[in-house]
Amino acid sequence: MKSIKAQEIHDAVRRMIMDACRILPDDVYQAFLRARDAEELDSAKEVLTQLIDNADLARSTELALCQDTGAAVFFVDYGDDVRIDGGHLEEILNAAMVEAYDKGFLRKSMCHPLTRKNTGDNTPAIIHTHVVPGETLRIRFMAKGGGSENMSRIAMLKPAQGWKGIKEFVVRTIAEAGPNPCPPTIVGVGIGGTFDLAPALAKKALFRPIGERNPNPEVAALEEELLSAINDLGIGPMGLGGKTTRTSPAQRSKNRRSNSIRSPPRRLRPGFQKPCRPGQRPQPASPGPLPRRQPGQGGSYPREERVNRPGVPKRPPGRAPPAQLPQTATRSPAQTPPGRRLASPRRPPPC
Question: Could you check whether the bond before residue 316 is cis, i.e. omega within 30 degrees of 0?
Answer without folding.
Answer: no
